[in-house]
Amino acid sequence: MSTTEENLAERLPGMCHDYAPPALTVDEMRDGEGRLREHWERFSAHFSLLGRAEIEHRWENARRLIHDNGVTYNVYGDPAGMDRPWLLDAVPFIISAGEWETIRVGLIQRAQLLDAVIQDVYGPQNLLQEGLLPPELIFGSSGFLRPAYQAPVPANRWLHFYAADLGRGADGQMVVMGDRTQTPSGAGYALENRIVISRSFPDIFRACQVQRLAKFFRTMRETLKGLAPRNRENPRIVVLTPGPYNETYFEHAYLARYLGYTLVEGADLTVRDDMVYLKTLGGLQQVDVIVRRQDDDFCDPLELLPDSTLGVAGLMEAVHAGTVAVANALGTGVMETPAILAFLPALCQRLLGEDLKLQSAPTYWCGDPYSLRYVLEHLEEMVIKPTFPVVNKQPIFAGQMAQERRQELRAKIQANPSLFVGQRQITLSTTPVLAGGRMEPRHVVMRAHLVSEGESYNVMPGGLTRFSAATDSMVVSMQQGGGSKDTWVLSGGPVDEFSLLQPAGQAVQLSRAGGDLPSRVADNLFWLGRYLERAEGLARLARGVILRMTDQNLDSGAEIQALHYALAVAADLPAAAMASITPEDLIVAALLDKHIPHGMQRTLEAIYRIASLVRDRISGDTWRIVNRFGGELLPPRLPGEPVQLNEILLALDDLILTCLAFGGLSMESMTRGHAWRFQDMGRRIERSMHTARLLKSTLVPICPREGQLLEAVLGVADSAITYRRRYLTSLQAAPVIDLLLADETNPRSVGFQLAALDEHLRALPHHSDEGPGRAPEQRLLMRMLTNVRLLEIPATAQVDAQGKRAALGAVLAELLKDIPALSDLLSQSYLSHAIAARQMGPATEEN
Asked: Beta-carbon neighbour count of residue 535 at 10 Å?
C-alpha cells in the first residue's frame, strides 16, 4: 500500500474514520490501539473517497439487485413470511494473504483428517477398537447409517465437500467452531455476495487485489465429473434438493443453474435394476452423480427414514451396486457432532502423524468423567450444545442464565452426561457493519468451503461471513436476524483472472437436446403458464368493469351487470355472495380477498410460489418480472381505509404490463424446447377457458344494451382494434363471436389457442406403449378443434324464442367441459409421478 493511501485512510472523514470498536474485544479492522490494520488500509482509503452519499446510492442499487434476483433465506415460522430477503452488508470481511495461507493449510489438513475418520468408521473401525473414539458418539448417533457400512465410494473418498465455521477469539487466533460434513451450505450465497459487491464497488474490488472464486467452482465441476462410475466424458449430474421449503433452497437452484446441472427432487428420480434414473418427458435417463443437498436419513425412505417422502427409494442399494456416486457420500453426517472436536488432536496424530494445525474451540464431551467435572466446575464459562444435532435447537449460553435455571441445566447434564457437550465461550471478534448510515461493530463468524481435488482439497479463497444482529449479541445466525458479508482474501501478487467461461478456441460438442426435462418441472411450468394467464385474464376483466363504472360519458346499464357477473364467475365467487354484494365490493373481493380460491391475490401468490419451484429454469431477467408478482396488488392500508377504484385501476394497468412482459420474454428468449411448450400450453388452456367463460357469461343471455356490452367484451379480450379495422363501427354479435371464438388469426380467440395446442402436442414425445394411433389427448383436441372450425357462426349467433343464444351456449358449455378434460389428459400422459411398484433386486430368502 502506498504512503498516500495510508494517510488518506486515517485522515479522511467518513464511515471508516468514525468507526469505533468495543473495548476488550479483538476487532478485524482496527488493532488494540485504534489503528487501521494494514490489510484494511487500501479498502478504507478508497471507501472513504466515495463519500457517504455515493456509498448509500450504490448500496441502494445493490439492495435492489438482491431483491430483483430473488435472493432469499427461508425461515420456518417467520411471521413476516418464510422467504426472508437475504441481508448483505456493504463492507466486506477482509483477510490478509499471509493469514489466509495459514488458514488454508489448516483447513486442508482438517478435511483430510475428517475424511480419514469417516473411512475408518464405515470400514475397519480401528479407531473404535483402539479407544480413540467413544462408541457412544458413533453408534448412538442418528448420523451413523448402518446401511452405509462398507459401501463402495469412488477413490474411497467420502467427504467431497466440507465447510468449517471459523471465529477469532480474544487471543487473536482463528479457531474452528464447528465442522459441516453432511451437506455444507453457503458456497452459493458466497458467490452471490461476491457478484453483488463486485458490481457495486468495482473500483475498490480491483484496487484491493481480491482473489477470485471461479477456480473453486471449476474444481467442483471437475471433481464431480471424476466421481462418475461411467460416461466420464459427459456424465449426467443432478442436484438433489428437499424442495422449496428448505431454508437454503435459493442456493440449491442457484448452484444448479451456475454449474449447469439439473435440479431434482426425490420424486424426479427412480431406481430400476440398481440404477438411478431421472424421469423425463422423453423417458428414463440414467444418473451418474447425485449432488445431495438434503440430510443423510432423508435420502432413501426404503432403508433410512421410512416416514419421509423426500428421498429416492432404493438409492442405498444403487450406491452399494456402484452404479451411482453421491456427494457427499451417505453417512458423512456422523461427524457433525460437536463432541468430535475434543478428539481431533489425538486422531490427527494417529491417522496423519501430525499435530492439528488449525485448533478447535476448547470442547468437552460430558460423557467423559474428567470433561464432565470440568464443564460443571466452569459452567458459567460454557456454551452447552447437544451431543447429537437437533433441528432448531440453539446453543445455551450458561453464563447468561439466571442462577435457578443454571441449576436446572446442571441437573440435566448430570442426569444424561453423554448427551451434552460443553464448549468454552469465545468472545468473537467484531467487524464493521454499515447500519443507519454509519459503521457499527458486530460479532462475526466465517464459513470456509472446501472441495476435494485429487488426493487433497481445494479451499475457496473467501467464504460466507455472517455477523450478529446486535453488538451485544454473540449469537451469529441468519435465522435470528443476523446478516452476511462478502469475504475478501487479498492476493499477495497479481490476481488470477480465471473465468468459468470456456476459452474461445476450445471445441465443444454441439447439442440442441431438450428431452431431459423432468416431469415435475414440466408440471410446474404448465401451471405457471396457467396462473399467469389467469392473472392477466382476471386483470383485464376487472379493468374493463371499472372503466365502464367510472366513465362519466356512459350510463350505467345492463351491460355493467353482465360484466359483474362475468367477473364473479372468473373469480369463482360463491353464488350467495354474488346476490348480496355491491359492485364495488365484488371488485374488491375478486382482487384483494385472499380467501377467494381463484381470486387475484391467491393467483399472484401461486405464480410466485410455482416460479420458485423452477428457479433454476428461469433467467435473471424473467425472475425480476416474477418478483413483481410476489407482493400485494395494493400497498398495505390502515384498518377501515376505503379502497379507491382509480387506485385499483392503476394497479391493474401495471399488473397487465407485467404479465405481458413475462409473456414477451417467454416468446422471445426461451428456446423452443419442452420447457417452453409446457409453459405455453398452460397459457393456451387457461386463455381458451377464460375467453369461453367470458362469452358464455356475456353473450349467451341477451343484453338490452348489447352494443355497449359487445364493445366492453372486445376491450376485455384486447380485440377492439382488430374488430374496428375489419367492421368499422358496426357492432354485431356474429362478427364478435367469430373473432373471439373461431378466428385462428386472432391470438385471443379460442380457435387460436386450440390450434397452438395442437402444434405443441404434435411436437411432444409419445411413448411406444400408446400404439400407432393417436393419444387420448390428441383425439380430444382434434375433436374440439374440428368442432370450432366447422361452426356456422351466423347460426351460432342466432337468438332463439327464449331470448338466448342457445346454440352458442351449447358450444361453449361443451368447450368448458372438454378443456379441463384436456388438461387432465395432459397431466396423466406427461406430468403424473405415480410409478407402479417394482422389485428393486433379485429376491432372496433374506429379503
From this structure: 23
Q: Which residues share a beta bridge with 435?
A: 438
| CA distance linking residue 323 with residue 159, whole number of Å | 19
Q: Pick from 199, 219, 198, 218: which is nearest to 209 by CA?
A: 198
Written as nine digits, the cell of 514 is 431438450
**Which pLDDT score is estimated for 129?**
95
Model confidence over 171-183: pLDDT tens digits?
999 999 999 999 9
Q: Which three cell numbers stand for residue 313?
A: 427409494
Contact 379, 397 (CB under 8 A): no
Indicate whether 49 and 183 sit together in one domain: yes
CA 315 from chain centre, in angstroms, equals 24
Residues 335 and 368 in one domain: no
As a three-state string, the secondary structure of 216-258 is HHHHHHHHHHHHCCCCCCCCCEEEECCCCCCCCHHHHHHHHHH
How many H-runs (helices) and E-runs (strands) does the chain carry? 29, 21
Query: Is residue 838 included in any domain, yes or no?
Result: no
Say yes or no: 394 and 536 in one domain. no
Residue 84 φ/ψ, nearest 5 degrees: -90, 130
**Does 344 lie in the same domain as 328?**
yes
Higher pLDDT, 99 or 399: 99
Residue 528 lies in a domain: yes
E-strand stretches of 684-766: none
Question: What is the count of structural domains for the chain?
Answer: 3
Same domain for 334 and 459, yes or no, is yes
pLDDT of residue 431: 94
Peptide linkage before 328 cis (omega within 30 of 0): yes
The pLDDT of residue 552: 57
d(CA 539, CA 533): 10
Within this chain, do residues 370 and 392 fall inside the same structural domain, yes or no? Answer: yes
Report the pLDDT value the prediction gives residue 477, as an integer from 0 to 100. 73
Q: What is the pLDDT of residues 660-701, one digit of tens each?
A: 998 888 888 888 888 899 999 999 999 999 999 999 999 998
- Please answer whether residues 179 and 465 qualify as being in contact, where contact means their C-beta atoms are separated by less than 8 angstroms: no
Domain housing 393: 362-425
Q: How many residues does the chain have?
A: 847
> Would the pLDDT of 393 be above 90?
no
- Pairing outcome for strands 93-95 and 483-489: parallel
Q: Which bin fits 462, alpha (ψ -120 to 50), beta or left (φ > 0)?
A: left
Same domain, 419 and 435: no
pLDDT of residue 769 exceeding 90, the answer is no
Q: Check whether residue 559 and residue 435 sit in a common domain.
A: no
The secondary element (H helix, E strand) that includes residue 540 is: helix 519-550
C-alpha cell at 506: 476450445
